[in-house]
Amino acid sequence: GSKARGVRVTDVARGSVAWQLGLRARDIIVAVNRAEVSDFKEFTEALKESSHATVLAVKRGDEDVRIVLP
């Protein structure tokens, strides 16, 4: 299949904030607040620009998942 562009989550500690919010290892973060991100630098810049609740668009296998960061 085609490889999704974005930021691959390599590990999430069980019980961590990221885990509690729903992020899992092997997730691929493809957008922050609807702005596509293709690498870690774009991802961190998009997070810095976010001034309110942040929505991550995540590809999990064949599933599209939305994760809201408070």
Structure in words:
Strands 1, 2, 3, 4 and 5 form a 5-stranded antiparallel β-sheet that branches. The chain has 2 helices and 5 strands, in the order βαββαββ. With 70 residues, the protein is α+β, with helices and mostly antiparallel strands. Helix content is 21%, strand content 33%.
Number of helices: 2
Number of strands: 5
Low-confidence stretches: none
Radius of gyration, whole Å: 11 Å
Largest sheet: 5 strands, antiparallel
Distance between the termini: 33 Å
Which percent range fits the helix content?
10-25%
What is this structure's SSE topology?
Elements: E1 7-8, H1 17-21, E2 28-32, E3 35-36, H2 40-49, E4 54-60, E5 63-69
Features:
2 helices; single chain; 5 strands; globular; about 70 residues; alpha+beta; five-stranded antiparallel sheet
Condensed summary:
The chain is α+β, with helices and mostly antiparallel strands.
